[in-house]
Amino acid sequence: MAMKTTGNFTESGSSTAEVFGRLYERHLQGVFQYIYYRVGNRVTAEDLTSDVFSKALAAFSRYNPEKAAFLTWIFSIARNTIIDYYRRRGKEMQLLKEETESRTLVSPQSPEDEASRTEETQKLYQCLAKLRPNEQELISLKFGGEMTNREIAGITGLSESNVGTILCRTMRKLRDYLEQ
Known about the structure:
single chain, mainly alpha, Butyryl-CoA Dehydrogenase, subunit A, domain 3, two-stranded antiparallel ribbon
């Protein structure tokens, strides 16, 4: 059986396009959810998700699974794409926080689901907007990107235990905000 190599990524009998296509299908939704959570706009999230996978495809020949799992690699690209997005527009995370407080975010659901949003969900988003930018980032990776603490640590450069500690404290803070 022939071995195809993409950078240092080897998969038996598969072309680079096939390997990347499978990884794209596996991770598209998680990357989109993470980006959508960070920018709060579906169209912008779709555009940025497209940018992330375009960048990943262009750099895929240099991807090395011995250095990082694909999930960590693709979310690092997504995170940097979001940073670049805000940097290009001259916005800082504080402005994002203020904008988020002034509007209600909607999740990528059907119109019927969006129409049935409860007051509690709106309050949750208002409480999330009160968090510091680094706390918002960790929450979005954990729940938007559905990542483990280890994966988040790989992306943020924090230790796994520090990620867990910050997330625990942030969840307590959210609970307190919700109870007020």
